[in-house]
Amino acid sequence: MAIMIFGLDAGLLLVDFITTAALYLIISLSLNLEYGFSGVPDFGKVLFVTAGAAICGGVAGRLAVYLLGMTIPGGFLANNTVVAPQITTILQGNIPVSLAIFFCAVIIAAVVGGALGFVMSFPAIRLREDYLAMLLFVLSVFVQVFLINYSPLAGGQNGISIPDPYAWTGNSYYASMVVMAITAVLAYLLISRISTSPTGRVLRALRDNPVAAEALGKDVVGIRRNVLILASAIAAIAGALYSFYTLSFNPYSFNPLQWTFYPFLIIILGGLANIRGTLVGTIVFWVMLKAISIGAPSFQNYIPFDTVWLNYLLPGFLIIAIIFLRPEGILKERPTKTV
What we know:
ABC transporter involved in vitamin B12 uptake, BtuC; two-stranded antiparallel sheet; 339 residues; globular; mainly alpha
Protein backbone atom coordinates (compact mmCIF):
# COMPACT_ATOMS: atom_id res chain seq x y z
CA MET A 1 0.00 0.00 0.00
CA ALA A 2 1.42 3.37 -1.04
CA ILE A 3 2.16 5.91 1.68
CA MET A 4 0.57 9.27 0.90
CA ILE A 5 1.95 12.69 1.89
CA PHE A 6 -0.32 15.68 1.19
CA GLY A 7 -2.15 13.44 -1.28
CA LEU A 8 1.06 12.44 -3.12
CA ASP A 9 2.75 9.05 -3.36
CA ALA A 10 5.71 9.09 -0.93
CA GLY A 11 7.65 6.59 -3.06
CA LEU A 12 7.41 8.74 -6.18
CA LEU A 13 8.30 11.81 -4.13
CA LEU A 14 11.43 10.07 -2.89
CA VAL A 15 12.47 9.04 -6.40
CA ASP A 16 11.90 12.58 -7.66
CA PHE A 17 13.88 14.02 -4.74
CA ILE A 18 16.85 11.67 -5.24
CA THR A 19 16.91 12.37 -8.99
CA THR A 20 16.72 16.15 -8.58
CA ALA A 21 19.20 16.25 -5.71
CA ALA A 22 21.68 14.09 -7.62
CA LEU A 23 21.35 16.33 -10.68
CA TYR A 24 22.06 19.47 -8.66
CA LEU A 25 24.84 17.77 -6.73
CA ILE A 26 26.66 17.14 -10.04
CA ILE A 27 26.24 20.77 -11.12
CA SER A 28 27.11 22.19 -7.70
CA LEU A 29 30.24 20.04 -7.41
CA SER A 30 31.48 21.37 -10.75
CA LEU A 31 30.71 24.92 -9.61
CA ASN A 32 32.49 24.43 -6.29
CA LEU A 33 35.55 23.23 -8.19
CA GLU A 34 35.48 26.45 -10.22
CA TYR A 35 34.45 28.99 -7.62
CA GLY A 36 35.14 27.41 -4.24
CA PHE A 37 38.57 26.01 -5.03
CA SER A 38 39.74 28.10 -7.99
CA GLY A 39 38.00 31.44 -7.43
CA VAL A 40 36.38 31.57 -10.89
CA PRO A 41 32.82 33.00 -10.51
CA ASP A 42 31.01 31.01 -13.19
CA PHE A 43 27.77 32.98 -13.41
CA GLY A 44 27.22 31.28 -16.76
CA LYS A 45 26.81 27.76 -15.36
CA VAL A 46 23.42 27.54 -17.08
CA LEU A 47 25.27 27.93 -20.40
CA PHE A 48 27.05 24.58 -20.05
CA VAL A 49 24.03 22.73 -18.66
CA THR A 50 21.91 24.05 -21.53
CA ALA A 51 24.57 23.11 -24.07
CA GLY A 52 24.67 19.53 -22.80
CA ALA A 53 20.88 19.26 -22.84
CA ALA A 54 20.64 20.76 -26.34
CA ILE A 55 23.29 18.42 -27.73
CA CYS A 56 21.47 15.47 -26.20
CA GLY A 57 18.21 16.66 -27.76
CA GLY A 58 19.82 17.19 -31.14
CA VAL A 59 21.79 13.93 -31.23
CA ALA A 60 19.71 11.24 -29.52
CA GLY A 61 16.74 11.10 -31.89
CA ARG A 62 18.76 11.46 -35.07
CA LEU A 63 21.22 8.80 -33.93
CA ALA A 64 18.35 6.43 -33.09
CA VAL A 65 16.86 6.90 -36.56
CA TYR A 66 20.26 6.15 -38.14
CA LEU A 67 21.03 3.08 -36.01
CA LEU A 68 17.57 1.59 -36.49
CA GLY A 69 17.66 2.23 -40.24
CA MET A 70 14.42 4.18 -40.21
CA THR A 71 13.30 6.42 -43.06
CA ILE A 72 11.44 9.51 -41.84
CA PRO A 73 9.91 11.72 -44.57
CA GLY A 74 10.88 15.28 -43.70
CA GLY A 75 13.46 14.15 -41.14
CA PHE A 76 13.32 13.43 -37.42
CA LEU A 77 13.19 17.08 -36.33
CA ALA A 78 10.00 17.86 -38.23
CA ASN A 79 8.24 14.76 -36.88
CA ASN A 80 9.92 14.29 -33.51
CA THR A 81 6.74 14.34 -31.40
CA VAL A 82 5.40 11.36 -33.38
CA VAL A 83 8.62 9.49 -34.13
CA ALA A 84 10.21 9.67 -30.65
CA PRO A 85 7.46 7.52 -28.99
CA GLN A 86 7.73 5.02 -31.87
CA ILE A 87 11.49 4.76 -31.35
CA THR A 88 10.95 4.32 -27.61
CA THR A 89 8.67 1.33 -28.32
CA ILE A 90 11.38 -0.23 -30.48
CA LEU A 91 14.05 0.43 -27.84
CA GLN A 92 12.12 -1.60 -25.28
CA GLY A 93 13.55 -4.71 -26.93
CA ASN A 94 16.84 -3.35 -28.22
CA ILE A 95 19.40 -2.90 -25.45
CA PRO A 96 22.53 -2.37 -27.64
CA VAL A 97 20.98 0.52 -29.56
CA SER A 98 19.61 2.02 -26.34
CA LEU A 99 23.04 1.99 -24.73
CA ALA A 100 24.67 3.34 -27.89
CA ILE A 101 22.24 6.28 -27.99
CA PHE A 102 22.76 7.02 -24.31
CA PHE A 103 26.54 6.88 -24.21
CA CYS A 104 27.07 8.64 -27.56
CA ALA A 105 24.79 11.52 -26.58
CA VAL A 106 26.40 11.92 -23.14
CA ILE A 107 29.96 11.72 -24.50
CA ILE A 108 29.27 14.24 -27.26
CA ALA A 109 27.61 16.56 -24.71
CA ALA A 110 30.68 16.29 -22.46
CA VAL A 111 33.03 17.05 -25.38
CA VAL A 112 30.98 20.09 -26.43
CA GLY A 113 30.78 21.29 -22.81
CA GLY A 114 34.53 20.90 -22.42
CA ALA A 115 35.11 22.76 -25.68
CA LEU A 116 32.92 25.63 -24.49
CA GLY A 117 34.85 25.65 -21.22
CA PHE A 118 38.08 25.91 -23.21
CA VAL A 119 36.70 28.89 -25.14
CA MET A 120 35.48 30.52 -21.93
CA SER A 121 38.90 30.06 -20.33
CA PHE A 122 40.38 32.85 -22.44
CA PRO A 123 38.30 35.66 -20.89
CA ALA A 124 38.66 33.93 -17.51
CA ILE A 125 42.41 34.39 -17.74
CA ARG A 126 42.28 38.07 -18.65
CA LEU A 127 39.28 39.49 -16.77
CA ARG A 128 38.81 40.32 -13.11
CA GLU A 129 36.31 38.20 -11.21
CA ASP A 130 33.47 40.75 -11.33
CA TYR A 131 33.80 41.40 -15.08
CA LEU A 132 34.17 37.68 -15.76
CA ALA A 133 30.96 36.93 -13.85
CA MET A 134 29.03 39.50 -15.91
CA LEU A 135 30.50 38.22 -19.18
CA LEU A 136 29.62 34.59 -18.45
CA PHE A 137 26.10 35.57 -17.42
CA VAL A 138 25.57 37.54 -20.64
CA LEU A 139 26.92 34.66 -22.73
CA SER A 140 24.52 32.24 -21.05
CA VAL A 141 21.60 34.49 -21.98
CA PHE A 142 22.95 34.73 -25.53
CA VAL A 143 23.09 30.93 -25.86
CA GLN A 144 19.50 30.61 -24.65
CA VAL A 145 18.30 33.23 -27.15
CA PHE A 146 20.27 31.48 -29.89
CA LEU A 147 18.70 28.10 -29.12
CA ILE A 148 15.22 29.66 -29.03
CA ASN A 149 15.63 31.18 -32.46
CA TYR A 150 17.78 28.51 -34.16
CA SER A 151 15.57 25.50 -34.80
CA PRO A 152 17.81 23.11 -36.85
CA LEU A 153 19.69 21.90 -33.77
CA ALA A 154 16.96 21.13 -31.24
CA GLY A 155 13.68 22.54 -32.50
CA GLY A 156 14.06 26.16 -31.44
CA GLN A 157 11.30 27.58 -29.26
CA ASN A 158 9.16 24.46 -29.79
CA GLY A 159 11.83 22.19 -28.37
CA ILE A 160 12.30 18.55 -29.30
CA SER A 161 11.15 15.16 -28.01
CA ILE A 162 13.79 12.55 -27.17
CA PRO A 163 13.51 8.74 -27.37
CA ASP A 164 13.76 6.94 -24.05
CA PRO A 165 17.09 5.04 -23.75
CA TYR A 166 15.87 3.55 -20.44
CA ALA A 167 12.80 1.92 -22.02
CA TRP A 168 14.38 -1.57 -21.94
CA THR A 169 14.62 -1.45 -18.13
CA GLY A 170 10.84 -1.59 -17.73
CA ASN A 171 10.76 1.48 -15.49
CA SER A 172 12.41 4.57 -16.93
CA TYR A 173 11.64 6.65 -13.85
CA TYR A 174 13.69 4.47 -11.52
CA ALA A 175 16.39 3.83 -14.13
CA SER A 176 16.93 7.57 -14.59
CA MET A 177 17.23 7.97 -10.82
CA VAL A 178 19.86 5.21 -10.61
CA VAL A 179 21.90 6.65 -13.50
CA MET A 180 21.74 10.16 -12.04
CA ALA A 181 22.76 8.90 -8.58
CA ILE A 182 25.69 6.87 -9.97
CA THR A 183 26.91 9.87 -11.97
CA ALA A 184 26.66 12.07 -8.86
CA VAL A 185 28.73 9.55 -6.87
CA LEU A 186 31.38 9.43 -9.61
CA ALA A 187 31.52 13.24 -9.79
CA TYR A 188 31.79 13.42 -6.00
CA LEU A 189 34.68 10.92 -5.92
CA LEU A 190 36.48 12.63 -8.80
CA ILE A 191 36.32 16.15 -7.38
CA SER A 192 37.04 14.86 -3.87
CA ARG A 193 40.16 13.19 -5.25
CA ILE A 194 41.22 16.41 -6.96
CA SER A 195 40.65 18.46 -3.81
CA THR A 196 42.81 16.13 -1.68
CA SER A 197 45.61 15.90 -4.25
CA PRO A 198 48.48 18.37 -4.60
CA THR A 199 46.38 19.98 -7.31
CA GLY A 200 43.87 20.97 -4.64
CA ARG A 201 46.57 22.93 -2.84
CA VAL A 202 47.55 24.64 -6.06
CA LEU A 203 43.94 25.60 -6.80
CA ARG A 204 43.57 27.27 -3.41
CA ALA A 205 46.87 29.08 -3.94
CA LEU A 206 45.66 30.38 -7.31
CA ARG A 207 42.41 31.50 -5.71
CA ASP A 208 44.04 33.29 -2.77
CA ASN A 209 47.08 34.81 -4.50
CA PRO A 210 47.64 34.01 -8.19
CA VAL A 211 50.67 36.33 -8.38
CA ALA A 212 52.46 34.47 -5.59
CA ALA A 213 51.52 31.09 -7.14
CA GLU A 214 52.89 32.16 -10.49
CA ALA A 215 56.08 33.43 -8.85
CA LEU A 216 56.54 29.94 -7.40
CA GLY A 217 56.43 28.44 -10.89
CA LYS A 218 52.79 27.36 -11.10
CA ASP A 219 51.10 27.50 -14.50
CA VAL A 220 48.18 29.74 -13.52
CA VAL A 221 46.78 29.95 -17.05
CA GLY A 222 46.97 26.24 -17.77
CA ILE A 223 45.50 25.14 -14.43
CA ARG A 224 42.54 27.52 -14.63
CA ARG A 225 41.90 26.41 -18.21
CA ASN A 226 41.89 22.75 -17.20
CA VAL A 227 39.52 23.44 -14.30
CA LEU A 228 37.05 25.24 -16.57
CA ILE A 229 37.20 22.47 -19.17
CA LEU A 230 36.58 19.73 -16.59
CA ALA A 231 33.84 21.60 -14.72
CA SER A 232 32.08 22.57 -17.95
CA ALA A 233 32.15 18.99 -19.22
CA ILE A 234 30.63 17.74 -15.95
CA ALA A 235 27.87 20.37 -16.11
CA ALA A 236 27.13 19.40 -19.74
CA ILE A 237 26.81 15.75 -18.71
CA ALA A 238 24.28 16.82 -16.09
CA GLY A 239 22.34 18.69 -18.79
CA ALA A 240 22.31 15.61 -21.03
CA LEU A 241 21.07 13.39 -18.19
CA TYR A 242 18.34 15.91 -17.42
CA SER A 243 17.15 15.74 -21.04
CA PHE A 244 17.01 11.95 -20.84
CA TYR A 245 15.07 12.30 -17.57
CA THR A 246 12.44 14.63 -19.06
CA LEU A 247 12.68 13.01 -22.55
CA SER A 248 12.64 16.47 -24.12
CA PHE A 249 14.59 19.66 -24.57
CA ASN A 250 13.12 23.13 -24.47
CA PRO A 251 15.38 26.21 -24.17
CA TYR A 252 12.77 28.01 -22.06
CA SER A 253 13.33 25.43 -19.30
CA PHE A 254 16.87 26.66 -18.66
CA ASN A 255 16.86 29.93 -16.76
CA PRO A 256 19.71 31.46 -14.74
CA LEU A 257 17.77 31.33 -11.46
CA GLN A 258 17.34 27.57 -11.51
CA TRP A 259 20.59 26.52 -13.16
CA THR A 260 23.09 29.14 -11.97
CA PHE A 261 21.91 30.79 -8.76
CA TYR A 262 20.51 27.64 -7.14
CA PRO A 263 23.93 25.91 -7.42
CA PHE A 264 25.60 29.05 -6.04
CA LEU A 265 23.19 29.03 -3.12
CA ILE A 266 23.90 25.33 -2.54
CA ILE A 267 27.68 25.72 -2.35
CA ILE A 268 27.42 28.85 -0.18
CA LEU A 269 24.99 27.04 2.11
CA GLY A 270 27.13 23.90 2.36
CA GLY A 271 30.50 25.64 2.43
CA LEU A 272 32.88 26.80 -0.27
CA ALA A 273 35.82 24.52 -1.12
CA ASN A 274 34.23 21.72 0.89
CA ILE A 275 33.03 18.65 -1.03
CA ARG A 276 31.05 17.21 1.86
CA GLY A 277 29.56 20.65 2.38
CA THR A 278 28.26 20.59 -1.19
CA LEU A 279 26.53 17.28 -0.49
CA VAL A 280 25.00 18.59 2.74
CA GLY A 281 23.99 21.88 1.10
CA THR A 282 22.29 20.05 -1.77
CA ILE A 283 20.25 17.87 0.57
CA VAL A 284 19.26 20.73 2.88
CA PHE A 285 18.33 23.05 0.03
CA TRP A 286 16.18 20.53 -1.83
CA VAL A 287 14.47 19.27 1.32
CA MET A 288 13.49 22.89 1.98
CA LEU A 289 12.39 23.54 -1.61
CA LYS A 290 10.39 20.32 -1.89
CA ALA A 291 8.74 21.00 1.46
CA ILE A 292 7.74 24.44 0.21
CA SER A 293 6.30 23.12 -3.06
CA ILE A 294 4.34 20.35 -1.32
CA GLY A 295 3.16 22.14 1.80
CA ALA A 296 2.80 25.73 0.60
CA PRO A 297 -0.79 25.40 -0.70
CA SER A 298 -1.90 24.58 2.84
CA PHE A 299 -0.79 28.05 3.97
CA GLN A 300 -2.47 30.00 1.19
CA ASN A 301 -5.15 31.36 3.52
CA TYR A 302 -2.53 32.69 5.93
CA ILE A 303 -0.30 34.73 3.61
CA PRO A 304 -1.31 37.79 1.51
CA PHE A 305 0.23 36.56 -1.77
CA ASP A 306 0.33 33.49 -3.99
CA THR A 307 2.31 30.64 -2.43
CA VAL A 308 4.29 30.17 -5.66
CA TRP A 309 6.37 33.18 -4.66
CA LEU A 310 7.67 31.28 -1.65
CA ASN A 311 9.95 29.39 -4.06
CA TYR A 312 11.71 32.71 -4.70
CA LEU A 313 11.39 34.43 -1.32
CA LEU A 314 12.62 31.69 0.99
CA PRO A 315 15.85 30.91 -0.94
CA GLY A 316 16.54 34.65 -0.91
CA PHE A 317 16.01 34.84 2.84
CA LEU A 318 18.14 31.74 3.25
CA ILE A 319 21.17 33.17 1.49
CA ILE A 320 20.87 36.45 3.45
CA ALA A 321 20.72 34.47 6.69
CA ILE A 322 23.79 32.42 5.72
CA ILE A 323 25.82 35.51 4.87
CA PHE A 324 24.98 37.20 8.17
CA LEU A 325 24.92 34.23 10.56
CA ARG A 326 27.37 31.70 9.11
CA PRO A 327 29.24 33.06 6.07
CA GLU A 328 31.54 30.02 5.96
CA GLY A 329 28.54 27.72 5.37
CA ILE A 330 27.35 24.65 7.25
CA LEU A 331 30.76 22.99 6.88
CA LYS A 332 33.65 25.43 6.77
CA GLU A 333 36.65 25.01 4.50
CA ARG A 334 39.37 22.75 5.87
CA PRO A 335 43.10 22.69 5.12
CA THR A 336 43.99 20.43 2.20
CA LYS A 337 45.28 17.05 3.34
CA THR A 338 47.10 15.73 0.32
CA VAL A 339 47.30 12.00 -0.32
